[in-house]
Design brief:
Layout lengths: L1 H16 L7 H14 L36 H7 L6 H9 L1 H4 L12 H11 L4
Length: 128
Amino acid sequence: MHARLLGAAVFSAGLLLGLTQAAGADDVATGAKLVQKACTTCHSLASPAAPRQGPSLVGVFGRAAGALPGFNYSPGFRAGAKGVVWDEANLDRWLTNPQAMFPGAVMLYKQANPDKRRAIIAFLQTLK
């Protein structure tokens, strides 16, 4: 029953946000589960939120990398982040291999599966 309600809520949110067919409700629901499992140990899904090891993920899509006020980014991240905005392509590169994108970045999580990365990115787009 709860899974149906969650699915309906995610589907409705997807419609309201005008998600493209490439990032449909199934991707958002899958992404929500993946983020909850793999990301929330280090990242908050609330805003405002005290930073954890990583910054809050609320509003990450469309935000300049390294620009969340109050978060102390690593020197490697700050050096690589100049001019980078978190869009689908940059989030995909980041989730594939953070250290390859920004040498010296601290994030350890990597996601080799492109379908899982797409789902995570679809969910992150809903965090306004």
